[in-house]
């Protein structure tokens, strides 16, 4: 006898459901009506149960709810049903003598996964569980395909990401991640508004890709007859707004970078970028500490969280350390080697860190930092003083022209934010772009393109300004204890299977 495959089983279930659909249609019962109105959600009903149970009982108030059936326990002329809406789940008790023979006959033709509308008072079962006693029962939407078995659920990450709707139906943990994500973004938006920032929107299709070093996605505009790029960052447009007189702006934005996929990278991701006139990078570090602490307290109740086995404290007063000092104190590089390019190359070769001899000194330092320091920065840490070569849009440090007034924030061994005092000298910015153009000519496809229009905007004058970008996906990972970025993006990009 041949084994039955899951596909065979699903095919048989779908065929059986089609037969039920035919029988329901023959009774003149609509399969997808749209006239049932609820009086409350399950969560709202549970609040009533907690706050005013005296109004409940078989002779008490009647409630109208709707949701998806998740479990059915049939007992002849009566049945228990567990159903859930977008807020919570509830138990329903349906009796033939309460709803009538025709309605109960309809109920017997329904399946787990179908949407129902119910009306009735509440009562408590022998186990003291509050349950709706159905006086009205309606089919609202017939499901043709079966849900995964509740016991096994959906554990295969590939299936969970491709069919996120099933993941959300079956896995409450997944639902909670995205509920938390929404709360994080909402708290962030409120924080900026309370600090007098104005939310704006800038183009997602741009004639030049700018604001970061990355490979862009290309598209074509038929009407204009021109190539456009999906934005890799909104930075240069937001700074144009500062030139125009909007002194505190932010944008919660989608960015697109044509790069690899990993547990920390998705080609389409969400950031917040914000810019403040008459501020420097030190001001933004203080603002960032306060914002993160505010969000974490709103989400978790205090400033301490657990992430992948680490206890992380977001209480303001985070460590601040220069990149050069971190390479010595954390990365283990002799301080006397920091300014010697050949010694650094030898050091890297001995440790099998791949760096080419053509790399600039600043890029060598940055690559060594990425390997030796970044993974060890678990508690919130600001790294400052990045080399000019890797900071094409950052203001030069007045104390050391080889470095910039820039910081990156690291938590749990990964970059979370990047901020700096902005260049508002148009000649300096033009020269930095020229440096990037030379890097492109030398083979760096991710180097910044010359943006003459942005330089022209600076020539009209931009006030002293600081700006920052924060990776929202990575922040959500931290606050939901998610190991992969795909866990916190509803529909992560996947390779096509057909």
Q: Could you characterize what this model shows?
A:
The chain is α+β, with helices and mostly antiparallel strands and 498 residues long. Helix content is 34%, strand content 23%. The strands form 4 sheets. It has an 8-stranded mixed β-sheet with strand order 8-12-13-20-19-18-17-16, sandwiched between helices. Strand 2 and strand 3 form a beta hairpin. Helix 6 (164-170) crosses helix 7.
Précis, in short:
The chain has 498 residues and is an alpha+beta fold.
Largest sheet: 8 strands, mixed
Number of strands: 20
Distance between the termini: 31 Å
Estimated structural class: alpha+beta
Q: What is the overall number of helices?
A: 15
Q: Kindly state the mean pLDDT as a whole number? A: 94
Shape call: elongated
Sequence stretches where pLDDT stays below 50 over 5 or more residues: none
The side-by-side strand order for the widest beta sheet comes to 8-12-13-20-19-18-17-16
Rounded to an integer, what's the Rg over CA atoms? 29 Å
Helix content, binned percent: 25-40%
Strand content: 15-25%
Main attributes of the structure:
alpha+beta; 7-stranded mixed sheet
How are the elements arranged and paired?
Elements: H1 6-26, H2 42-51, E1 63-75, E2 78-84, E3 89-95, H3 96-99, H4 101-108, E4 115-120, E5 122-124, E6 130-133, E7 136-141, H5 157-162, H6 164-170, H7 172-194, E8 198-199, E9 205-206, E10 218-221, E11 226-230, H8 235-243, E12 248-256, E13 268-277, H9 281-300, E14 304-307, E15 310-313, E16 319-322, H10 323-329, H11 341-350, H12 361-372, E17 381-384, E18 406-411, E19 414-421, H13 426-441, H14 452-459, E20 465-471, H15 472-480
Parallel strand pairs: 3-6, 8-12, 16-17
Antiparallel strand pairs: 1-2, 1-4, 2-3, 4-7, 5-6, 9-11, 10-11, 12-13, 13-20, 14-15, 17-18, 18-19, 19-20
Helix pairs in contact: 6-7, 7-9, 7-15, 10-12, 11-12, 13-14
């Amino acid at each position: 006898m041949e084994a039955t495959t899951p596909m065979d089983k699903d095919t048989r279930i779908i065929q059986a459901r089609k037969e039920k659909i035919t029988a329901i249609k023959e009774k003149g019962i609509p399969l997808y009506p749209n006239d049932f109105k609820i009086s409350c959600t399950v969560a709202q009903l549970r609040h009533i149960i907690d706050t005013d149970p005296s109004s409940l009982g078989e002779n008490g108030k009647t409630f109208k709810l709707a949701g998806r059936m998740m479990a059915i326990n049939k007992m002849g002329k009566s049945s228990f049903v567990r159903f859930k809406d977008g807020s919570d789940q509830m138990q329903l008790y349906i009796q033939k003598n309460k709803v009538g023979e025709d309605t109960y006959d309809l109920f017997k033709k329904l399946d787990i996964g179908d949407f129902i509308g119910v009306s009735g008072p509440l009562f408590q079962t022998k186990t003291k569980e509050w349950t709706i006693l159905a006086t009205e029962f309606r089919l609202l939407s017939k499901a043709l395909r079966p849900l995964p078995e509740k016991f096994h659920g959906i554990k295969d990450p590939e299936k969970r990401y491709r069919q996120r709707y099933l993941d959300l139906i079956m896995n409450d943990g997944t639902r909670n991640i995205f509920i938390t994500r929404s709360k994080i973004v909402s708290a962030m938006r409120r924080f900026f508004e309370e600090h007098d920032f104005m939310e704006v929107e800038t183009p997602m299709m741009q004639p030049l890709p700018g604001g970061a070093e990355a490979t862009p996605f290309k598209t074509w505009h038929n009407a204009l007859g021109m190539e456009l790029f999906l934005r890799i960052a909104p930075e240069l447009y937001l700074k144009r707004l500062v030139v125009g007189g909007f002194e505190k702006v932010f944008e919660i934005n989608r960015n697109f970078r044509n790069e690899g996929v990993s547990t920390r990278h998705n080609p389409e991701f969400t950031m917040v970028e914000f810019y403040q006139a008459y501020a420097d990078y030190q001001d933004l570090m203080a603002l960032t500490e306060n914002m993160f602490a505010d969000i974490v307290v709103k989400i978790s109740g205090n400033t301490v969280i657990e992430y992948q086995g680490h206890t992380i404290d977001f209480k303001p007063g985070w460590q601040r350390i220069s990149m050069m000092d971190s390479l010595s104190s954390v990365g283990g590089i002799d301080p006397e080697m920091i300014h010697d390019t050949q010694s650094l190359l030898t050091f890297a070769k001995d440790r099998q860190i791949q760096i080419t001899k053509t790399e600039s000194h600043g890029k060598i330092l940055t690559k060594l930092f990425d390997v030796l320091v970044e993974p060890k920065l678990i508690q919130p840490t600001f790294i400052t003083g990045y080399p000019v070569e890797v900071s094409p849009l950052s203001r030069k440090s007045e104390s050391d022209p080889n470095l910039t007034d820039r910081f990156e924030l690291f938590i749990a061994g990964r970059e979370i934010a990047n901020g700096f005092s902005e260049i508002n000298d148009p000649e300096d910015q033009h020269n930095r772009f020229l440096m990037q153009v030379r890097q492109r000519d030398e083979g760096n496809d991710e180097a910044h393109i010359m943006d003459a229009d942005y330089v022209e905007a600076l020539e009209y004058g931009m006030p002293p300004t600081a700006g920052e970008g924060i990776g929202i996906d990575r922040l959500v990972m931290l606050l939901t204890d998610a190991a992969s970025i795909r866990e916190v993006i509803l529909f992560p990009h996947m390779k096509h299977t057909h």
